[in-house]
Fold this protein.
Amino acid sequence: MYRPLFFLLAFALYATGIWAVAETDWSPGPVATTVAARAAAPVAPVAAPRPAPSPAPTLADTVRPAVWTPSNLRDYLVAELNRTNPSVALGDLDRITLKSPYVAGFCHPIAHDLGHAALAKYDGDFAKAVSYRNDVCGSGYLHGVVEDKLAESPDPETEVTTLCSPDQTASCVHGIGHGAMFVADLDVPKAEQLCDRFPRTYELVACSEGVFMQLFEPDVTDPRAMAQLRPAHFAGDPFYPCPAQPAVFQSACYYYAPSYFLQQHDYAAHPGAFVQALDWCRQAPSAGQASCTMGAGSRIMKYNIARPVWTAAQCEQAQPWQRPICMAGVVSYWDVNYHDDSAASKLCPQLSGEARDECRAAAGSGSSGSED
């Protein structure tokens, strides 16, 4: 009933929790010879226009509010970055997330925005921007720098495989996937053609992560992004566009699909949507059920980071075969949120019964998943 084991394991290892991201010199390396993973039509090398940037925050925007929202947190941190440097803003984001765990539900895209702001602050100097590297909120800052740099590139077909050189870490390549969507004007097949230029499977998987995260967690103010998710698409296939994807890209597609399901079912006001998402995953083609379930578990943890016992209880309401997979998603997001491997020592002891056993099994397996 599961998808071919190879691609599921590849995705579980490289696409859901903590990437082994080496500390390295992020200066652009020498241009390497690129090899397309499969024949594909050429992608236009001109980056699609990005949505107009939000107005720069003023000093009045920097007063700490009583409650953080995506808008006021972004304004506060971007203003702080512009006054100081990315290290200060990222450190503050880390402290805010630890003090107010609900912020974890929206801190990843804000970290992306800080990456965009840093690249603008340093006039497109990629090496300078990434020198302030901090992996808070699932490495969102790095993703933001990489996606903006690729989107602005005059030759994205070359830079797609060289921008993350020499180390080609999965986290950086994930950012390439986000950028590929902007270069391709949010057209998934065209973005996949760019990902296809990577010669290794782990790079393809990591790149596909960024593609489908960008697709299923769209900027709702961007009509181009919303046009990719028309209701008519889902009326014909509730798992659009995953079944039609090449095998190497399917796991990432199914993994991120619950993000959009939860948004459409207003999870914030209707917490029953989390169990509904797990039930919905069972309706997916057999090849996508496990990836969808793991992605749902990750989202449940992401949106409820301050209540792990409640989160585990949602997984335990799923079908027996889904429960350990859901818990693997929970563990992966816990680790990526706290950018460590603390699930075994800090998350699992809070749980009891089968949930605790499943948590320990997932935390001890070393399996990991997406960047966020």
User: Anything to note?
Assistant: The longest helix spans residues 247-264.
